[in-house]
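RECORD TYPE: protein structure
NAME: Class II fructose-bisphosphate aldolase
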Amino acid sequence: MLVNMKKILEIAEAEGYAIPCINTPNEETVRAVIGAAEELNTPIIIDHAQVHDSLIPIERIGPIMLKYAKEARVPVCVHLDHGSDYEFVMRAVKVGFPSIMYDCSALPFEENVEKVAQFVKFAHAAGITVEAELGIMASTDEDTHDDDPEKRVLTNEDIREFFTEPAEAKEFAERTKCDALAVCFGTMHGIYAEPPVLDIDRVKELREAIPDDTRIVMHGASGVEFDQVQNAITAGCSKVNYYSYMAKATTKFVADKVAETDGKIAYHELQEAAYEFMKGYAKDVIKAFKNGK
Ligand SMILES: [Zn+2]
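PREDICTED:
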């Protein structure tokens, strides 16, 4: 069943756990993630990232995501991840996404507030939920920093300056009325240079400061020890984005499979095996974020 994010975040809040949000840049991943959620009878969020649009445009993968979501036996939210251009965000609206992240976090505070508040008005009238971001999520993604490899090595100390301030988060949520807010407290996008250390007290302070109807989102969870993710969830994160390490693990699985069969495995069999592997991986992620519930 296709839903917007409000419904799913309400379930997460009531149950005291977090719902994973996983990138699904091809049909196998869409099937694997929704299949995992169905087997565990839990709601799930699948998303398309603007940075993946050069790989597969939203007009091609979006209708596939929406079709599987509608047919699913559990609530599935189809979400746009990090839409940073208004034009791109409107493409997601046109394709029929019921949930959109409008990320203006690179802009000064006032501009971020104004742009998000204006979009929320339009989106809520159309039944679309909105996620925003405050504080800058550092990124080690090659596609963001391919020009300067130095920038891809960020330490835990380096990223403290990007952390979200609770008082600003409160004002932001009150003025924009966004449904979800991505905040920074120790994670980053991509592959970590050293084991990340999350500031759990910061999550608690943020949760206390932000109005209840804006749920807290953690990005860049893959690569963080599950224990730390669980502490962040207990402290108040309701949606947790996860992807990079699942993609890496699947690449290794596929490489091993090809080696194991001496390259004799047919491509369609490889694809199906990768689907089963990703489904198992997604199930582990969902279970970890449910904190044993
Ligand atoms: Zn993110």
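COMMENT: Strands lie at 2-3, 19-23, 44-49, 76-83, 99-102, 129-134, 180-183, 215-218, 237-242.
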